[in-house]
Amino acid sequence: MEYVAGIDGGGTKTKAVIADMDGLIVAKTTAGPTNPNVMSREKLIQTLDTMMQDMKKQVPDVFEKISSVFAGISGVGNAKAKADLEDILKQMVSNSVTVCVEADTVNALYSGTYGEPGIVQISGTGSITYGINQQLEHDRVGGWGYLFGDEGSGYDIGRQGIMAALKANDGRGEKTILLEMLCTYFAVTHPYDFIQRIYASPIPKSKISPVSKLVFEAYKQNDLVAEHIMDNIVNELSLSIRTLYMKLFKPDEEARVVLCGGVFSDTEVLPRLLEAELQEYKNLTITIPIMLPVGGSLIGSYLLQNIKPDSNVVQNIISTL
Fold it and tell me: Which stretches make up the ATPase BadF/BadG/BcrA/BcrD type domain (predicted)?
């Protein structure tokens, strides 16, 4: 019996799994980051080798029967980075194994489309819109980082919330409960104090992104300023999705839009608003994945064998991860 392996590598954590051809997980392991942009090549090789050795120790006989490895890794946005990582992984498996490395956005996409073409909107701390069409052409919109982009991300929502609160404090903006909520959140009595804390942080965006939760809460309390921020966010996300759809798909082509990331965790806010905004685009179907991204890497591994996973395989992956 043959087996497939999948890897989901990020800037803080990496997961790897092995599954049989029915989608049943037989080995899994977790390690630190594998983004080549935030670590040395030596450390990257060490991390991947440790993971592969761990899975080999769990199922030694199975490891030798792996037929393909699909790795979705953050920070491999160019051909050179992909080729380098593929060479590294090929040294860790037998010569007969097919190895493919793509950006981790592909894992997120496949976790919701199960290998079919589509679009994934990732909005966590940062944001990017990524897609693959029937011709296997890849393209993206956004993903330019917090200095020049990340529209619709947790950082973007938090930043807009803080700015609106400061304008309200100055008297040059509408009153909003966000001002009081921010002072409570940071345990201060004046906005100057939490602003000072944000600027003094080694990574200011790590302080700003969690504020998005306050904006969501203010929105639920019918705060007009929070509602305006949500309108801005929905417009940005909708524009990115529609732009990528026009770049990759024909006007009458159906495409699933997968929503991944923390800002979509409350399904009653952004997912609902975004679905309403896109309702006139009948060929777009919004979905929130129940499969983990590392499961998407397994889908990619099956596709390397020219196997499109059926519903039983998909369900087995979801239930045994």
Answer: 6-296
